[in-house]
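Our consortium's second objective concerns turning raw sequence data into structural hypotheses that experimental partners can test. To show how far this objective has progressed, the report includes one record in full. It was chosen at random from the queue rather than selected for favorable results. The single chain below, 209 residues long, was entered without modification.
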Amino acid sequence: MYDDVQLDKSPAGQILRLLQQRGELRIKEIEAALGVTATAVRQQLNALVAEELVARTMVREKRGRPHAIYRLSEKGQALFARGYANLATVLLEEILEVAEPELAQKLFRRVSARLGEQYAGQMPGEALSERLEALEKRLQSHGIITQVDEAEELFVLTEYGCPYFRVAQQHREVCEMEIEAMEQALGTEVTLCHSQLDGHHGCQFQVRK
């Protein structure tokens, strides 16, 4: 996964930033802009396409051979929009301040369902261990350090950092929202056994096999 540091300094990060700034580009245009070989550009682009951060389209001109055009995918665009996470938190706080309890519960149920759908959409594996690995990667791509351990009858997912911590301090229903989203995506029972809100180092979830 590509974090903010890699976006600044790595060859892949330079390509992502170039596509963000200039839109659709051919390999020759990227090569000229970065001062590297076409082979190096192609190598990085293939990896970025495999990560679904860059989309590739073949274009056929009236003359000459078809050529590929590269642009940021929606997933790639999201790398440059992380500042909106704080805006989402502020909006959620304000909604919960003015909403009636019943309306707030309805809101949480709708959000957990949407999150569950998003999680599930990025978990192609059938085995629970595969889906957990995909969930772990998704959380880490959003800056949340996670760890998955396996016990005899369950898995333990630990999040070292809470994306909703500020809101959860006043509205612990947010924790239930996250649990319901995980259960929908993983297809099994999830239990929160340790929470940062109670002074623990991280939030720990037991995932039933």
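The partners drew two points from this record. The longest strand covers residues 154-160. Confidence is low (pLDDT under 50) at residues 1-5. Both points have been shared with the crystallography group to help prioritize constructs.
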